Amino acid sequence: MEEEAEKLKQMQTEVDKQMNLGSPPGSSMNSAMNLSFEEKVEVDGRSIYVGNVDYGATAEELESHFHGCGSINRVTILCNKYDGHPKGFAYIEFADKDSVQTAMAMDESLFRGRQIKVVPKRTNRPGLSITNRGFFRGGRARSRFTRGSYYYGYRPSRRARGYRRPYYSPY
């Protein structure tokens, strides 16, 4: 039993070595997270956004569709983090910036029966968030205790729109 456990450990270490040697350098997700802002801008300058992508599309199909535009480094199809289903758009990183202009000609082309949208990828600026829009979204707070309600003793004239007599009114 102990001999089998040792054999399994040796096999596991061999597989781990092969996995580390077989992957190209810089292909891990951590290396993409450790890029400086200038490097991210440079990578985004070589990338495009592809919208209205079919949910069943694969990275290989997108790569073959944009193969004529230039050498492709990476195809990323974004998925929902909760259920894992694709979101319907992708990013394609090319080897050079000239390929982005070539890929722009593929805008409104058909991919798996859908008309795709191709635009250059924009760079997110650190510190800017589109989700923080302030406390009140509509400008002013709306509640049942605003001016014009019966709670403040304000009673609209009979000509005002929506005027109803209270049930306790003697008139």
DSSP strand tally: 6
Shape: extended
First-last Cα distance: 97 Å
From the helix content, strand content and strand pairing, which structural class follows? alpha+beta
Low-confidence stretches: 22-30
What percentage of residues falls in helices of 4 or more residues?
25-40%
CATH class of one domain: Alpha Beta
Estimate the mean pLDDT confidence.
78
- The CATH topology of one domain is Alpha-Beta Plaits
Summarize the biggest pleated sheet: 4 strands, antiparallel
CATH superfamily of one domain: RRM (RNA recognition motif) domain
The CATH architecture of one domain comes to 2-Layer Sandwich
| Helix-strand pattern | HHHEHEEHEEE
Strand content: 15-25%
Radius of gyration: 29 Å
Order of strands across the main sheet: 2-3-1-6
Number of helices: 5
Gist of the model:
The protein has five helices and six strands, in the order αααβαββαβββ.
